[in-house]
Amino acid sequence: MCGIAGYINLDGSPADASLLWRMIRTLHHRGPDDSDVSVHGSTGLAHSRLSIIDLSGGRQPMADERGSLCIVFNGEIFNYVELRADLLRKGHRFLNHSDTEVIVHLYREYGPDCVHHMNGQWAFAIWDSTNRRLFLSRDRLGVRPLYYSAAGRSVVFGSEIKALFAHPAIPREMDLKALGQIFTFWFPLPPGTAFRNVLEVPPGNSLLIENGRMKLCPYWKPEFPAEASAPLSSPRDEERYREELRDLLLDATRIRLRADVPVGAYLSGGLDSSVITAIARGLAGSSVDTFSVSFDDPALDESKYQWDVARSLGTRHHSVRCSPRDIARIFPEVIRHAERPLLRTAPAPMFLLSRLVRASGFKVVLTGEGADEFFGGYDIYKEAKVRAFCSAQPQSKLRPHLLRRLYPYIPEIQKQPISWLQAFFHAGQNDLANPFFSHLPRWKLGSRLHLLFSREVRRELEKQNPYQDLAGRLPRGFAAWPLLARAQYLECSLLLPQYLLSSQGDRMAMANSVEGRYPFLDHRVVAFASALPQRLKMNVLDEKYLLKRTFRQMIPEDITRRRKQPYRAPDAISFFDPQTATHTEEYVGDLLSPERIRREGIFDCHEVQKTVERARRGQTAGFLPNAALVGVLSTQLLIHQFISHSKEIGAHATN
């Protein structure tokens, strides 16, 4: 792993270099290129660096030429070339050609407002000795994680929670409120994490620590039209949008190809990664290396489309096959890097994929993440539109049949009668005014997992209202936004940074010292897509309409025409073999045993054993049985790795 860590003693006592080394070493996994620490009186900074730009220089922690600013930085500033040229014109002098040094000079020029000038993905900390200020910042969309915690008269921060736990004053305790949110929304609501008193800097925020006080400073948030977009007046309007999208995405990809090492690309076989790969292939002027994951289950496997695109674009393609047993084998390592309970195993194949990338000699890959959120690609957007259509005429006998158009790749849904579909999707119910209308079916289904918790935990969670907690974080007037805008905001401001970019994206890639780059998450592309007329995002039920129309000449026709298939992985079947009715790995039986369940006290032993027995018999069709098993097992793993096991180590050390 690569990242940053550090702390500041608010009482002025000196920082300890040996503690900083312990903190940063928790991030080591697959050989970062260099690490270092720097002590500035009561403030200590540490980094573990993956060299991608300016391989010969730019070691961190880095001080400016005056010695009054020192930075540790994880990520990339993609427009650093343009920023550096502008700063040179303003009289700044540089010691090397790294993007890290550009941040230092930007801060000297603009102070905390420097983040408005940056196009990239970052988590960094700057010690400003002149103003006695520690300035931490996280990128707009939350690609790079950044955590912090107050420990007495100290504030500790790091790219991972493990780094914080290396500080002896940070307690290791599960946060039950966050656990209830994870077992409802799939993620904890920011700034909370799975652990008590450990917080994250939310996406689009900076954290100022000066004069003994901490202050979160929002500098960016996604914006969607508060009113329905005006209709397009002519075909020329659509062509103008296509031209602008083409120019923006080409430039977003161009600057993300900046590196002093080779850059590859993930290729899922879907529209988004195919578009990015095609653009990268054109910009590179030669073949690029692409990477994909395939599965034994034909319902999950997209390898045919992956190879079709690779052959069409002439890429050097690499693929790793992921079996259920592979997932079970690496799942403990996945949870150690994710640092939170998971309800799906989907991050595990991404861990194997990044391992393949690194083994192939690559440190950087482009991905298509972000297109679904901002260009209207998710099934949940289509689902909300159909449900709203049904709710407008609840007595209609014909409208509910549109529910058959949803989730064609899930046979458990498709074979159900219309009456079941109406109840499952809350179709026809008068809850259109609910600000969470688009996500209610998903979240209400998830909340049924609370039955797994022990009586004591359920009693504690009954005091909480996760929907009320979420409502307090929404923009003013949110409930009056158009339905699609509301759904998009919930996806891109919550699930994207809290799950897809963290547990499934950055963590799994950086576990193997691989950096993912996301052209669709360039803030210029995001602003363009957010403001699009809704018909250009979803034309009736045709998702990502503008994106398809813009790039259809660059990729195979069957990719633009194929029915969307979201990325999924084997879940409960990974941990139990239904033919032998036994667990596939020893740790599964241990952590799900009645003794361990009772000892940890989070889950109800009877409910867990029912879940285990269903998995033994292979009766895990549908979301709930799979999420139940994966959720319990991942939570037990997290407790074992971060709480119980650490206590055992501490006890042995004392003895």
Characterize the structure shown.
With 655 residues, the chain is α+β, with helices and mostly antiparallel strands. It contains 27 helices and 21 strands. A hairpin with a 4-residue loop joins strand 6 (120-128) and strand 7 (133-138). Helix 5 (176-185) packs across helix 15 (440-447), helix 6 crosses helix 22 and helix 12 (379-392) packs antiparallel against helix 18. The relative contact order is 0.12. Residues 648-655 have low confidence and may be disordered.
Question: How many beta-strand elements?
Answer: 21
Q: What is the general shape?
A: globular
Major pleated sheet:
6 strands, antiparallel
**Count of discrete alpha- or pi-helical segments spanning 4 or more residues:** 27
Tell me the β content: 15-25%
Structural class: alpha+beta
User: Taking strands numbered 1, 2, ... along the chain, how are they ordered across the largest sheet?
Assistant: 2-3-1-9-8-10
> Termini distance?
32 Å
Average of pLDDT: 91
Radius of gyration (Å):
25 Å
The percent of residues in helical segments reads 40-55%
* Low-confidence runs of at least 5 consecutive residues: 648-655
Concise overview:
This protein is of the alpha+beta class and 655 residues long.
Fold blueprint:
Layout (H helix, E strand, L loop, with lengths): L2 E7 L7 H9 L8 E7 L2 E7 L12 E2 L5 E9 L2 H10 L9 H12 L9 E9 L4 E6 L8 E5 L2 E5 L2 H5 L10 H10 L13 E2 L4 E6 L2 E6 L16 H22 L6 E4 L4 H14 L4 E7 L7 H11 L2 E7 L1 H15 L8 H13 L4 E3 L4 H5 L3 H14 L18 H4 L3 H7 L15 H8 L7 H7 L4 H6 L11 H18 L1 H9 L4 E3 L5 H8 L3 H4 E2 L2 E2 L1 H7 L5 H5 L14 E2 L4 E2 L2 H6 L2 H7 L4 H12 L6 H32 L1
Parallel strand pairs: 13-14, 13-16, 14-15, 16-17
Antiparallel strand pairs: 1-3, 1-9, 2-3, 4-5, 5-6, 6-7, 7-11, 8-9, 8-10, 11-12, 18-19, 20-21
Helix pairs in contact: 2-3, 5-15, 6-7, 6-20, 6-22, 9-10, 9-27, 10-19, 12-18, 18-19, 26-27
